Amino acid sequence: MSMDTIRNSVAGDSSVLSWETWNRIKHTERFVFLSSVLFVLLFSYAFGRAPVISDVFKGYHGLAMTILIWSIFALGFNLLLGQTGLLSFGHAMFFGTASYAAALFAIHVYNEPLLVVLVGTLAAVALGVVAALILLRLHTVYFSIVALAIAQFLYFLAREPLVEITKGINGLDVKRVPLLGIVELDHEYSGLVGALLVNNLYIFIGVFFVAVVALITRIRKSPYGLIFKAIRENETRTAFVGLDVWRYKFAAFILSAAIVGLAGGLMAVNTQFAGVERLYWSVSGDIVVMTVLGGLGSLAGPVIGTFVFFYFKGIVNGFPTLGNYWLLLLALSFTAVVWVYPDGIWGMLTDFTAALRDPKGLVAKAKRRLASLVPTGGDR
Amino acid sequence: MALLETRGLTKEFGGLTALSDVDIAVEEGELVSLIGPNGAGKSTLINTITGQLSPTEGDVYYAGTDLVGMKPFEIAQLGVGRSFQTASILPELTVRENIQVASFAAEHGSFRVNFLRHRDSFDAVQEQTNEILQTIDLDSKADMDAQSLPYGDKRRLEVAIGLATDPDLLFMDEPTAGMSPTETKMTVDLIGDLLAEWGMTIFLVEHDMDIVFDVSDRIFTLHQGQLIARGTPVEIREHPAVREAYLGGGDGA
Questions:
Q1: B75 and B176 inside one domain
Q2: Which end of chain B has the least Cβ crowding within 10 Å, N or C?
């Protein structure tokens, strides 16, 4: 490895030029879009069925779909926390409510997967409007805690008083029906499509995943992306340049709720079920862990964090002996990563690649870090 | 009619009177300075005018509009800009992005639904941002993170953000504090340009008396929350109350 890094550093102008080109390309919308398509195409295969890699991961197709949906959840959550700087400890409220709304619509009104997902999304938006009117009056920890309280309120509401509607702890079953009346979601393909994507359900979820990545990329590159960051950095300053901070926060909240609602609706379709546990506080906690572990504020971070979380929950969990300690192992990894790299796994990866490109810079940085640890004596 | 006018402006914090019955008027196109010893109420006066604090009593009129009760972003949208005393920049954004945020506010108002449009496609905003970058001479550092700028550049960026809101009246709170002599001269020159070429009205708070006497059309002097003197630089320099306030004595009671 060291030979490679040295070669990189002495390669001179031509390599610098190519890195610049790469830096430009990797931030374009088209690149992000194509990457997300490629990711969906290869993810289930690499995770569950590819030779060698899948032996390491020990994954399976069903878990791949779960991870895609929760990645949408994490991306929506990150829009609020990573971009705008608002930490909600109650995002389960959107996930769970959307799931219920989707299931109830499918059972009582009309069962069509696309429509069901849309209804879930709209329900989350409606809840988002109400929650935002309450929460955006509050700041810092009060915002976080009251969000948690609202989610827990909905949890208990769904569990006991509304048991006639929600079926309480038994939950609601959603019948699987063909998409648009034609496309069987359970239909399994053979050949290359079968090897990569397996079934229509995966494609259905994958299309939503790509759409959400594209939407969030666009939001990040719109004026909103900039203004959300400005609010995160310095709310007072943002107000004093003439921007209505409350409305932009409201917009961030609603967009986040909509994306999380989409994930909740997809979950109802995917599992053919909606239950009260999706409103539970631990769901709100899990999504914070996934997002922060993967890397706040980036696009790849929340997806990586979701993957690692479910790898521990779904795979390590099944290991002999070690499996009993999966939560402890996850907590240890979380602490280790976030301690050293506040920007999570994605921050760690970008640090590594930067180091490979510029080993001298890494040494300088390490020296600076060391120097900052040693008290300088001071001039008092 | 004056561009900015306060009438009987009073601000109390608990039992403490930070501003007492302050009447000032600023005409369009002039540069007025506000001076006074530490704790005189200079910052309170600016904060009360720009909406960060609400006055206990009195009124603030800007171009005929009563500002009392309006939020800071509404006042900014009327054309009242502000640069802060401590560099109040957006540290993790680039220099260009810092200015862009303010340019969007100037071009698009306080809120607009445009989250599906790429921000590079807003030509007027990009144009204004580039213009400000050149004016303030930060275009070579446009893509640096604001937090990695040297101190003097941070202060200039602070002024640039204020400018990018495209104000008619700009409050500058100690714009040269902590700057090197070269940077100070540049800032003073910039202030001259803003008046002459941009037709701006400037309300300056400054500790450097050389600058104040050099650039101001008129000077207001605050002391313990009260306006003790107003006038041209020559008048203020000779004013007995100002000399007393600055040279000490007489405020033991």
A1: yes
A2: C
pLDDT tens sequence across A90-117: 999 999 999 999 999 999 999 999 999 9
Taking CA–CA distances from A232, the nearest residue in chain B reads B90
Domain assignment of residue B124, given as a range: 87-166
* CATH number of the domain bearing residue B218: 3.40.50.300
Mean pLDDT in residue range B177-194: 89
CA distance A352 to chain B (A): 21
Question: Sorting pLDDT into bands at 50, 70 and 90, what band is A374?
Answer: low
Same domain for B69 and B176, yes or no, is yes
Whether residues B140 and B197 share a domain: the answer is: no
Q: Average per-residue pLDDT in chain B?
A: 91
Whether A17 shows a pLDDT value over 70: the answer reads no
B248 with B179, same domain?
yes
CA distance B136 to chain A (A): 17
To 5 degrees, how large is the angle CA A44–CA A50–CA A54?
80
| Neighbouring residues of A359: CB distance < 8 A, sequence distance ≥ 6 | A5, A6, A8, A9
Cβ distance of A247 and B118 shorter than 8 Å: no
Together in a domain, B188 and B149: no
ipTM of the complex: 0.91
Residues B27 and B100 occupy one common structural domain: no
Q: pLDDT digit string (tens) for A66-95?
A: 999 999 999 999 999 999 999 999 999 999
Q: Which of B90, B120, B121, B163 to mutate to probe the A interface, most A CBs <10 Å?
A: B90
| A255–B contact, CB cutoff 8 A | yes
With contact defined as beta carbons under 8 Å apart, do B96 and B133 qualify? yes
Distance from CA of A227 to the nearest CA of B (A): 6
Which of B166, B183, B203 finishes a domain?
Answer: B166
Classify the C-alpha dihedral A93-A96-A99-A102 as positive or negative. negative
Name the nearest CA neighbour of A261 among A99, A63, A129: A99
Interface of A with B in 27-66 (CB under 8 A): 29
Q: Give yes or no: residues B48 and B173 share one domain.
A: yes
* Alpha-helical segments (H) within chain A: 2-10, 13-26, 29-48, 53-57, 61-78, 92-108, 113-135, 140-159, 163-166, 191-197, 200-221, 223-233, 235-240, 245-271, 281-294, 300-310, 326-340, 344-357, 359-373
Chain A residue with CA closest to B165: the answer is: A241
Same domain, B60 and B182: yes
- Final residue of a domain: which of B166, B198, B223? B166
Measured between beta carbons, which residues in chain A are less than 8 angstroms from residue B102?
A: 241-242
- Number of folded domains that form chain B: 2
A241 CB neighbours in chain B (<8 A) are 76, 101-102, 105-106, 161, 164-165
The rounded distance, in Å, linking the Cα atoms of A77 and A134 is 18
Q: How far is A225 from chain B (nearest CA, A)?
A: 8
Check pLDDT > 70 for residue A2: no
Predicted pLDDT of residue B38: 84
Mean pLDDT of A215-234: 96
| Partners of residue B201 on adjacent β-strands | B169
- Stretch among A190-194, A222-226, B40-44, B59-63 having the lowest mean pLDDT: A190-194
Tell me if A244 and B72 make a contact (CB, 8 A cut-off): no
